């Protein structure tokens, strides 16, 4: 079996933890498996390098930032390889350039184009553990690039795809994907399996276990991802193509997200191209619009509501003011005192009553729904911020997620 | 003009110093010259990495040590490039691998085999300053190697040779090569020029300005080295092929070295192969023997004396004991209470009275000579340690080195 294992920065934050990771890797290797390990920079290394950089310049070239930051993973792979060798496995470390992780040339947020497998395969066939620097590659000009957010997860999945690995294990500080945030719902269950699409919806909703980018890549190449903790040996959650869908719970999880702000535009002229103008202006400012709702017209005027992250709110309001005259809407409101609650489940496709069950449950709790959007495997509602936990608990109970065997029996019974 | 500049770890020890180096580089670039800069790791970075490593393992693979330590220079080149760009010069940093500094595969002390110039020349021709990581290269297997002691000086000189640079400037914390250690001889003069051979003799004698390895390389390719300080703009010392030898001082400098231990072997059988056996055994232990003296025979027995560094003394004595029976010498002594004093000068070749002058001067001071060796451009004496400073001052005065114009007039007048 060929296994790719990825350990994040907190798993290799100090020499003790590096040795613990090494032990885990060597155990796998000594079971007779081929093992490729990819690691991030140790703990705060990246932040330390950025702090040092800021003492030199406030306006760094992105190419040189990549040159600087890529040293963090290089230190990790060298130290981890030393620790693995001490425990008796033959091992070699490789930088992104040495592997041949080719990317485009967008420094600080490069995309992987192709991974050369010959060096890694040759080392594996020599019986070595191969330790690869995460987060980095080289562009066609032979310059070092970094992959930006979620980069080390992406390295791991891309390596697994290129090497046709049997599984890609992502070690984090949580032990799997839960049906809800255990801090909100103490009885939340750990999911043993989840589909790529469900994981994507959960990840983008704030369950920050796996970066969506790596999930998309895993889905594209059909690589199973095993999300588990580096702190113990318990099984985590396997993310894969919808397995046994007939037997899966209809709803897999309840997610919530506080980083939401709601904007309403009043009396927007109802003519072609108006929505386009608004959202193009926001997109030009790199503002990511999430939910969008356009109400029924009255007097040839519409109301348009949408949500953005709270971080983007100020920029959003400035953009709206700038285009108000041109677009011709009468006014706008905004509200930060909101949150988004969602249910996610691949089974919803074949159980049409699920959305209605959600609305009923929230109504029974006296919670007002300010916005609603639905996709094939997700229903999201914007509600008052203070009612978030109550909503999550009620939904978790409604869909019987504290007991996954029971949850499978749920079938849209309202 | 194409200039290669090398800045050591203390010159780039913190952001302030990095900015100062950047200013100096940009001034050169803005004078219209092509500039290649090579730098070491910042200040204590290498020591810090080694300390971190020791928390992981006591027995690191040398390949992984190179992987680890080479990050130090990579951080330096990124930060220096950022600082240079801030001051208005276009610039690019390159690792040893990116330049194509090809070495053998002796990790931690690799030798440069070849330098690819195409990337560096292309960047220079784009008008960029090129900042190259010192101390590192890649072996034929595409693995990162480091060059060991004096590695960054060697990178600079090898780059200068490969690029056919006009000069290689080595910036250190001293402002040039002096006729004696100014702490011992306050009136010591700074030499404006010195030959490669003289520099080699001085460097190996403890005037630790330039590593002998880089001087040898510069001599081989005829690259002038300008040794100067990064703390001010004064001219330093130019090391080059013996310039105007007729007009150079006969003696260029007086060096001393405290890191010397003297060993004497008594009654060594006078038959072929005996000296070979002794020094082969020492060499097998990586002990560097410096001076060797074999006295005239009596009763078909010899006395053999030699010196090693004090660091190697213990290992030397163990080795001698181990071979005593086989070689058949009667006994041995050792003495650490000694030092070596030398005079170096290319002009000595044509002035045969210089050695005699040295002996006379030391005799006048009442200093006993325990061992003597001579080469074409050097005479070295082992003396009692406590008399070192007196010896150096007397010799410096004798050869008129406090005034280099006068020193040129000295011509072996005893």
Automatic annotation (TrEMBL), chains A, B:
It comes from the Bacteria. Pathway: Amino-acid biosynthesis; L-methionine biosynthesis via de novo pathway; L-homoserine from L-aspartate: step 1/3; Amino-acid biosynthesis; L-threonine biosynthesis; L-threonine from L-aspartate: step 1/5; Amino-acid biosynthesis; L-lysine biosynthesis via DAP pathway; (S)-tetrahydrodipicolinate from L-aspartate: step 1/4. Residues 263-346 form the ACT domain. Pfam families: AA_kinase, ACT_9. Keywords: Amino-acid biosynthesis, ATP-binding, Diaminopimelate biosynthesis, Kinase, Lysine biosynthesis, Nucleotide-binding, Transferase. It catalyses: L-aspartate + ATP = 4-phospho-L-aspartate + ADP. Its EC number is 2.7.2.4. InterPro entries: AceGlu_kinase-like_sf, ACT-like_dom_sf, ACT_Aspartokinase, ACT_dom, AKii-LysC-BS, Asp/Glu/Uridylate_kinase, Asp_kin_monofn, Asp_kinase. It is an enzyme of class 2 (transferase). Substrate binds at residues 46, 73. Catalyzes the phosphorylation of the beta-carboxyl group of aspartic acid with ATP to yield 4-phospho-L-aspartate, which is involved in the branched biosynthetic pathway leading to the biosynthesis of amino acids threonine, isoleucine and methionine. PANTHER family: ASPARTATE KINASE, ASPARTOKINASE. This is Aspartokinase.
